[in-house]
Amino acid sequence: MNQHLAYFTLGIVIILISTPLAYTLVNVLYQNQNLTGEYVPILNGFIHSLMLVGLVLCSIGLVAFIKNKK
């Protein structure tokens, strides 16, 4: 498998599973804490950060593909 294809597919997969992964990360990291009013903002932060990581990986894959195509 080409390196650029691996980055591209990994980025797409991370974007697609960012919400369930964020729920899991929030529950693991804040297991013994009371997050009464802060749960939704923390969850949104985790979701957005995972989506950004997926977007960066996807763009790295696209740039590598375009670079290797020339």
Protein model, in words:
It is a single chain. The chain is an all-alpha fold. It has one domain. It is 81% helix and 0% strand. The protein contains 3 helices and no strands. It has helices at residues 3-16, 18-29, 39-69. The two termini are 19 Å apart. The mean pLDDT is 93. GO terms for molecular function: transferase activity. It comes from Lentibacillus salicampi.
Secondary-structure element pattern, one letter each:
HHH
Helix share of residues? Answer: over 70%
> Cα distance, first to last residue?
19 Å
Indicate the low-confidence ranges by residue numbers.
none
Number of domain units = 1
What is the tally of beta strands?
0
β-strand amount: under 5%
Rg estimate, integer Å: 16 Å
Summarize the main sheet: none
Task: Describe the protein's topology.
Layout lengths: L2 H14 L1 H12 L9 H31 L1
Helix pairs in contact: 1-3, 2-3
GO molecular function: transferase activity
Keywords: Membrane, Transferase, Transmembrane, Transmembrane helix
Protein name: Glycosyl transferase
Task: Give the key terms.
70 residues; mainly alpha; 3 helices
Compact description:
This protein is an all-alpha fold and 70 residues long.
